[in-house]
Amino acid sequence: MEFQQQSLVEYGARRVIITITAILCTLLEIVDTTIVNVALNDMKGNLGATLSEIGWVITAYAIGNVIIIPMTTWLSQQFGRRNYFAASIVLFTVASFLCGNAHGIWELVAFRFIQGVGGGALLVTSQTLITESYPPEKRGMAQALYGMGVIVGPTLGPPLGGYIVDHFSWPFIFYINIPLGVIATLLTLQFVRSPRYSAKKSISEVDWLGIFLLAVAVGSLQFVLERGQEDDWFNSTPITVATIASFFGFFFFIWHELNSKNPIVALRVLKNGNLRVGTILSFVLGFGLYGSTFIIPIYTQGTLGWTATQSGLLLIPATVVTAFMMPFIGQMLQRGVKQQYLIVIGMFIFFMYSFWGYLILTPDTGKDNFFWMLIMRGLGMGFLFVPITTLSLSTLKGRQISEGASFTGMMRQLGGSFGVALITTLIARQNMFHRNNLVAKLDVNNPNVMQRIHNSQANYIAHGMTPDVALRSAYQSMDFMINKQAAVQTYMDAFLYIGLMFLFCIPFILMVKSSKNKVDISEGMH
Length: 526
Prior knowledge:
By secondary structure, this protein is an all-alpha fold. About 75% of the residues lie in helices and about 0% in strands. The protein is built from 20 helices and two strands. The protein has a two-stranded antiparallel ribbon. Helix 1 crosses helix 8.
């Protein structure tokens, strides 16, 4: 289904308003991915939920996101982009209100899924809107403006959530979406234009089987990634069943879409080599973006004893650096600098950031030690987002560009889910490995070990404990030190492995062919 050629470029105040609306909607969707993380404990107590149940508040939102993203292009065609975008904002806003008013855990989970369905559409459609509003020579800048929302969002969530929970109560992390959602809806209806489409498909022509298979495949995969470590992976029957469902769901979905006259997702667009590379790089970008946003707060809170707000604030300077970098990267692309070279620079900087993290972690690393390391992370992200997006779409034409944007958006989200799942598993398993390794070196016949125990016992006795209680406390103190040291070594491993993954990608990026023509990203995007 094609739309008739029509200029959607805007000028002056109208373009500014559409740009602000698109960035606002991007931030709304992505901030809500991470803002709940710091409020889970309060929700758990307030709703009387178990730790396992409260995890579904995050899982349900992510599943709603990844199911809807690949369908966004088709839904925009069916209902008109402006109508679909406005309806998605309304759905997201209403679901936010319902989440804040939920009286039970499963009620909250259901509303979070609906919120995720509304939010997933905002991500890809915002990118299309903001890009089409700019003339071809300024589209690198347009991608940079959109990218600021994508990069800032995950970092903004934890400190904002921590502040709201500390000063108000957890429902307000959802209520703040309501006024913003109302404003975004009104601006969309007033200023956003839709391309003129050819005839829509009738209900009988809709690829219902494709929709069902996509929901099963992506939804099951997201469930496995979100819940796997907590449920002990394949020792859990639901995880095993979901893995099998995801495998067969993807198998039959791919077969069906390649043979369908009216596919819900145009998989043939993946024949394009640059898009295939771009989707893989989007996955790696999501892995690094969400993985590093996840690992730093749990290290600073779990090992260093920081509050959620302190941990969140630590990431803000790096995010400001990324936001500052993006317009410059956009200008470099407009002047003809190859995307591959910028991506390679970004990958290497991100490797250096990870290796720096590997070197500086100790049981009492101070705030100042993190500052320049995280500034380097901000620089790396600045060099990655816009070039990866433009490389992915650089050799596509017409409607393929919109379909390609949907793939890169979905892969970035899935990359984040894989990142969090693998890092969680790595932390759990490496922590046990390092603990066992450290304990094995504590020989009771070693005079240095026993001297340390006796000194600690004498210290406790001096503070009024009886000898037997003091000895027990000395061993507990030693055990605490072992656990802390094991945790530090585990996070060092996590930083090192993330960095090596980015370094490993560099040779493959240099082999990607450049597009001879400047890409007009707006062609056919809707």
